[in-house]
Amino acid sequence: MTTERPPLTRLGKGLRRLEAVDKVTGRANYTHHVSLPGMLHAKIVRSHVAHGRLVGIDTADALAVPGVYGVFTGADILKIIPEPYYGPAFHDQPILAIDKVRYVGEPVAVVVAESPHVAEDAAGLVQADIEELPAVLDEIEAMRSDVYVHDSLRPAGTFADLKHLNGIRDTNVALTFGVKKGDVEAAFKTAHRVFKNTFKTHQVMHVPLEPMVSVADVHSAHAYVYTASQTPSFARTEIARLLGWRENQVTIKTAFLGGGFGCKLYVKLEPLAVALSMLCQRPVRVALTMAEQFYTITRHPTTFNIESAVDENGRIVARRCEVIWNGGAYADIGPRVTQKSGFTAPGPYDIEHVDVTSVAVYTNRPPAGAFRGFGIPQLVWAYESQADIMAREMGIDPVEFRLRNVLSDGKRHATGTVMKDAAISQVLNRVAERFGWNKPFERTTGRFRRGRGIGVGIKACVSPTTSVAAVSVAADGSCSVQCNTVDMGQGSDTLMAMIVSEVLGVPAESVSVVNPDTDASPYDMATLGSRSTFHMGHAVRLAAEDALAKLLAMAKEVGVERIDPADLGTLFVRKFGMQAGTVIGTGVYKPTYQSPDKNTGQSEDITPNWMIGGTAMEVEVDTETGMYTILRMENVVDCGTALNPLVVQTQISGAAIMQLGTVTLEEMEFDEQGQLRNAGLSEYKIPGIQDIPRAIGREAVDAYQSNGPFGGKGVGESATFGVASALAAAIEDAVGVRITQLPIRPEKIWEGMRNNERAQL
């Protein structure tokens, strides 16, 4: 691994988030605070069936309510937007339902009123007449069913790597992606042992504590949209496309986000808010309740069939993977999850023969899309659980089994891309060392049994994507950053200020980072996939270096031999004779990328970097009830150089705790008709302070990403990877029960123990 590292003067040292005081004192601005003169409020009427023909909508009673401005349906949207369908992969999702509904909770009408309370009351009076059709809810059933969620599809063509998508008919499969390497069939025939398992994950919601909200004000042939979005640049492009307008006729403004985790990507409420503002000729605010978010976007449930062949030394020689992604009623970014995550299904292992099939499937559930980890936690759950099964049955220590198989730098990943600066074995060894894996461990033999488990996973950084940034130096020497990376709690604003500080030598605390505004902030593909540190970090670095070059040229012009970062303003005075002028540096970053071969999935350059995360856990299980307590959790990641170690530490803990919630507590529960039973925090449980381990360790290994900005790369998702499999392994180590379907609930453990007892009789 590359060890030559340039010295850092300001990066690499912990800096508290620049917005911390504003947030804890309640002064930070959020989109929920936006209030415009004459603003109306919208409340959505939703489908009560999972699949059906929309026969008619009775709005008369709602229109009669005092204070109601209007009630609008898909027919009204069609009058102003002839093709009101949106989506980053397929243009398949209507702003309001047209002709059909495809899941319980789909928007079918909207009430707009002077008050949100009036709108909510009136929404309950709208009657939707829906002729119910058969529905498909399970991803395996949907693959085989002749009940089709969509009659036909139109690819969006948004991303270069998805431009090959075709319109489909008579199937629920939106995308199939494969990776082929070597001769899997021959390897299986000659293998020492073959292991075959199926693992399933469930549907969960992101649960940001700031629910989704968008405010639109359309006038004078210009749409102004204030929105809690992770993708302001995409939102501008998509709104402009829907309206047939130029991009400069659309302005997207956002502020701090109260969490996003993937649910606020691309467009969600923005098209509806814009359409309603056009219909009402006034600003309109569309704000969801916490419960309504569950009907908007979720994380994919999956079925993962994995078959692995090993030799007598415990080396994995071949692996066949089939991953079926339940994408719900609309594709959103699901096809990209299917592709980008699918090729990592073989895991962080050096396997000569590989056959991966990754399939995105439509069902009549709420749509699924990006979620922290972008599909990787579902995959790691399966391949690391099977690693434990194989190690246990072959009598090999789980850490040793992994180390025998792990990919190292210089080796080729299953896609054909050579691994570089990927500290997989370093992460695995360090998490084992922190955990004391090689020290004596007492599992106990009484009612309460103890066990331990470990897991490691990898994620490719999403590519190809582009980031653009500008750094402005004002006449008094103060600096500001313009970029469309959205700070949603990950500390990106602070990091961008630190990068400018590193290049220009000014204090990071004096650098302002402008809230994303597409009229002022340059393009960025999205704030997702832990890409911002790498992509936008490079763009900001390049912009700061460009500004520095211009400052040096100015200094030479006015006869100044050395620039003093503490007194940049003197240059402007020497140049203009007064405090005047601006220096603007710009930077554009787009890493190299080679699209995978359509037949084999092979690519020499599938990703610019790899994120790695490992987790180890110790649990105690009550053999009488199946209740368990996580006594300790250790998390170790590779994020290259930790550019802001203070934020890296909190990101590691936050990611691990969030994933722990999805593994132990959270589950969207549907009945046979597709009705969600537990929308909202009163019934859908996320971790509280009493639900997390008292001992949580965290560390970023001493690594270096040679092609990263100042040696760094992303970290926001890495600690999610190994949580599920480590917990399952620890439970099996304690009581001999192997859980193969998430979430891990005490009743499943209890049932497994009783089954084991019956098997021994």
What would you say this structure looks like, in words?
- It is a single chain.
- The protein contains 19 helices and 27 strands.
- The protein is of the alpha+beta class and 761 residues long.
- The strands form seven sheets. Strands 3-7-1-14-11-12-13 form a seven-stranded mixed beta sheet.
- Strand 4 (85-86) and strand 5 (93-94) form a beta hairpin.
- Helix 11 (376-394) runs parallel beside helix 18 (723-735) and helix 14 (492-504) packs parallel to helix 15.
- The chain is globular and about 85 Å long.
Can you give keywords for this protein?
761 residues, alpha+beta, 7-stranded mixed sheet, 5-stranded mixed sheet, 19 helices, 27 strands, 27% helix, globular
Task: Write a brief structural summary.
With 761 residues, this protein is α+β, with helices and mostly antiparallel strands.
Which runs of at least 5 residues are low in confidence (pLDDT < 50)? none
In round numbers, the mean pLDDT is 96
Through-space gap between termini:
54 Å
* Strand percentage: 15-25%
Task: Output the strand order for the largest sheet.
Answer: 3-7-1-14-11-12-13
Instruction: Give the number of DSSP strands.
Output: 27
Work out the helicity level: 25-40%
Helix-strand category: alpha+beta
Q: Major β-sheet, in short?
A: 7 strands, mixed
The value of Rg in angstroms is 27 Å
If helices are DSSP runs of H or I spanning 4 or more residues, what is the number of helices? 19
Task: Tell the overall outline.
Answer: globular
List the helices and strands and how they pair.
Blueprint: H1 20-24, E1 40-46, E2 52-58, H2 60-63, E3 68-73, H3 74-80, E4 85-86, E5 93-94, E6 100-101, E7 107-113, H4 116-123, E8 127-132, H5 139-144, E9 173-181, H6 184-189, E10 193-201, E11 213-219, E12 222-227, H7 232-243, E13 250-253, H8 270-280, E14 284-287, H9 290-293, E15 298-299, E16 302-310, E17 316-326, H10 334-342, E18 353-361, E19 368-369, H11 376-394, H12 398-405, H13 424-435, E20 448-460, E21 467-473, E22 479-482, H14 492-504, E23 511-514, H15 532-557, H16 569-576, E24 583-589, E25 610-622, E26 628-638, H17 645-664, E27 696-700, H18 723-735, H19 746-760
Parallel strand pairs: 1-14, 12-13, 15-19, 17-18, 22-23, 26-27
Antiparallel strand pairs: 1-7, 2-6, 2-8, 3-7, 4-5, 9-18, 10-16, 11-12, 11-14, 16-17, 20-25, 21-22, 21-24, 25-26
Helix pairs in contact: 11-18, 14-15
